[in-house]
Amino acid sequence: SKAKLFDEKTDTxxxxxxxxGLEGAKEEVQEIVEFLKNPDKYTSxxxxxxxxxLLVGPPGTGKTLLAKAVAGEAKVPFFSLSGSDFVxxxxxVGASRVRDLFKQAKDKSPxxxxxxxxxxxxRARGKNNFTGSNxxxxxxxxxxxxxxxxxxxxxxxxVLAATNRxxxxxxxxxRAGRFDRQIYVDxxxxxxxxxxxEVHLRPIKTAETLDLDFLAKQTPGFSGADIANVCNEAxxxxxxxxxxxxxxxxxxxxxxxxVGGLEKKNKIIT
Length: 270
Ligand code: ATP
Fold this sequence. Notes:
globular, ATP-dependent zinc metalloprotease FtsH, single chain
């Protein structure tokens, strides 16, 4: 909801096991997990823990999921907000929300802060692509930069941010000591789609052993979110037909339905 701008969760339920594929990205964030688990081990030798990393990739590819899994694996609290929450916000509110969020995270450190859709606040300054007031957006962005610069070496808060438009971000965000690492989270390939099906079939009662290779081949260009949708939709289709279990045809019907939805969405955009 709009009112709940961020929420804190000690989200120990999400783990790397829930994130299918994305081997490279998981390897990169593993280091962050290690820092969060044992910050003193790194800082005692004079090293500086990274402050932030940018997760870059198309919608629905698991950026939020991966950020939650980092918190889950490290067993640290997860604080999040979405850039789009700042749309239509009154002057001063965005900056104070950012300040509050960082304060809460520091109080509970080690912790993860996750900023989804950072492009909504982090667009290059002076370019008015924001639905709300541009001054307000700049204030919010400046507050974010200030907070990150204000981290001492022992703050032990790592900020992960997600975007599908890294090209529009203000360069100041990518400077050393801010989001100076970029981690790519791409659309899944055939093998990864198979693994994503595996994860999302776990709760589904299937009538037969499904050929995951076949399902993966039916879903080129699908994101992890699309595949999660297919599995859910297949179960609903089967239930509507009073079936006791979900079969291959239900999955194919679900794929058709999702493809239809994706085509409609693209028509509106283009
Ligand atoms: P957006 O850019 O739209 O915010 P995102 O990249 O943050 O998207 P998520 O919100 O993490 O994507 O993904 C949505 C849902 O899709 C997840 O909760 C999960 O159910 C499923 N999903 C996406 N990617 C994967 C994956 N790699 N493995 C398993 N499930 C996935």
